Amino acid sequence: MVTEKDISQFSEQCTNIFKQIARDVIGQEKVVQGTVIAMIAGGNVLLEGVPGVGKTRLVRSLGRVFDLPFSRIQFTPDLMPADVTGTNIIVKDDQGNSQFSFQPGPIFSNIILADEINRATPKTQSALLEAMQEHTVTVMGVSRKLNEPFFVLATQNPIEQDGTYPLPEAQMDRFMFKLLVPDPSLEELLQIVSLTQKTMEEVAEKACTGEELLQMRKTANQIPVAEDVLKYAMILVAATHPEGECATEAAKKYIRVGASPRAGQAIISAAKVLALIKGRFNVAYYDLLELAFPVLRHRIKLNFEAVAERVSADDVINMVIEEVEKKYRKS
Question: Of 63, 124, 201, 207, which alpha carbon lies 20 to 30 A from 312's?
Answer without folding.
Answer: 124
